Structure prediction request, 337 residues.
Amino acid sequence: MKKRSIFLALGLCLAALAGCAPYWVKTPVVDQNEVTVSLEHKVRKGQVVQQQFHHPADISPENLKNLLTQLSYLADSAIYGKPERKPVFQEVEIEHLAPALVQALAKANPEQRVRFVSRNRGGGLLFKKDRQTGGVAFVETGDRLNLAFGYVNEEILSSRPDALSQADNADPLMIRSSFAPIVAPDFVEHRLTEKGNPFPLWIVADMKHIPEPPPAPAASPATGTPEAAAPVKTDSLAASEPDKALKTEPVVAPEPQTIKAEPVPLQESPSQPLKAIEKEPAPVAADKPAAMKSGDSWETRKQENTEKLRYLKELYDSGLIDEKEYKAKKEKLLEQL
Prediction:
């Protein structure tokens, strides 16, 4: 009897705690194969929690597209190599997500925020597998749009037929560390925690001042590879170098013509030049791999791991990852040495 009464008391306590815990109630707005958008409000003890969002909000679709186009993130693999910036959304995703967000923000009331999931069905150069990006959006006074991501380009597992992530029921506003933080452009700022550290996946943008994205490189349509221009938009530093390389190739083209003119007198005695050409490449081809195997492997690995440790320390110092994650990744890198 005593044990039964104890279990009964524990059950009543758990039920009371569950009733006191807040939860979000969703109202679907857009449910498509490419995007899912819904409104959600928080409920505690049967009462709607007052949020005081600046809703309904009138957001310019064009400004929102410009913002989504210029958002990038550091890929998760950057911890094991040099940081690599990738676009958060592909152009096809933005065409579906932007109008859905505008529609939801226009319907929301001051207690509702917008929950979204955008799906990239693969087939591009960057993502060969189906992936999805999800989070919440809401507007504050002054047309300040908040975007807080729960996950970015997460692989959609075939074992989940509904294609939803476990993070869809979590609150993105509580994420304080991430190995794939959002890289915001100059006109966007990260929301800060109480200690002054930036939230890695929570950004705020003034929708009245959203500049247009930089134009795509002019050389990409000529080469017939417009898809390759998508990642270049998110990284201005990476965009400048390929452009220079493409522009300098036509200028250097005349030089081979002057070199081709030299073999004319050599045709009179082809045997000697041919022997010289055959003998010279042989030691060069043999020496180069030997040098790479003997001396460069250790120095290269040491330099790469040094860069990885420095980058990991920068993430920890900026508050984008916590101490536990920092120590775990640091131990793995040291083991590789």
User: Anything to note?
Assistant: The longest strand covers residues 144-155.
